[in-house]
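Thread: "does anyone have the structure for this chain?"

Original post by V.I.:
We have the sequence but no experimental structure in hand. Need at least a predicted one for the grant figures.
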Amino acid sequence: MMETLHALSSNPFLQIALLGGLLASIASGVMGSFVVIKRIASLSGSIAHSILGGIGFFYWLKYNHGQTWADPIYGAFLAGIISAFIIGWVHLRYKQKEDAAIAAIWSTGMAIGVIFISLIKGYKADFTSFLFGNILLLSTKHLLFLGVLDLVILLTTFFLYRYFVAICFDEEQSTMQDLPVTFLYFTLLGLISLSIVLLLQVIGIILVIALLTIPPTIAALFTGRLIKIMISSILLAIIFNTLGILFAYSLDIPPGATVAIICALSYVIVLIGKRFNCLKKRTFFSIF
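Reply from O.Q.:
Generated one for you, tokens below.
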């Protein structure tokens, strides 16, 4: 433990990782709250897994064709936006077929990623960091990119908050009130895809839903107000990310899996505490 504390002040990789975890926590807390309230975790999971197609394509451009600008995280961003818009279009036009569309995009995105990865010549090991996460590999360039995405998420949510709340709780009523439901729904899905991209390096594609949904799910057990759920979710995500990164660094184990396990264990502990009345409403979840 003393070695880990010393590394906090001397290891730039660990410092960047903790800052990356903070940036990811903001996005997961804000957008994860909408995911939980609107109950679209499976939709978010489809976006997360379809991102593999964009990552594979950009890896292929970078290693097979020497396109140094083709950072896989940009491919993840592009694929996430495209997948979100396709799912949103199916949801608004053909609601009865939404589950099939989610499954199709989920599997197709992953299949495209696997095909492009199989075409890459030479070394491919760093691709696994997108599957399982490795926040210790973040660079200052990634931090800047993630910071910009965070800013977009926060500003858009600030200006459209009450409209997002309206479509999350009653989409049909919002339509009757002449709100631009199509625009709002596409924007919300786009922001969710941005938050997923933010979480990729922290926890990976396979485990991303844990960090996106568990903190707001825990917070929702103590308060019904969305703004309180968001603030509590951000704080919980920061705690989970920080503990996960420090434990992973200290024990030399994968950080993404460690964060996911901490999320899951915390949820179980909270459920047990609620079951035996050990946790009351008057907690830090409801002081804001």
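V.I.: this helps a lot. The mean pLDDT is 85.
O.Q.: and DSSP finds eleven helices and no strands in the chain.
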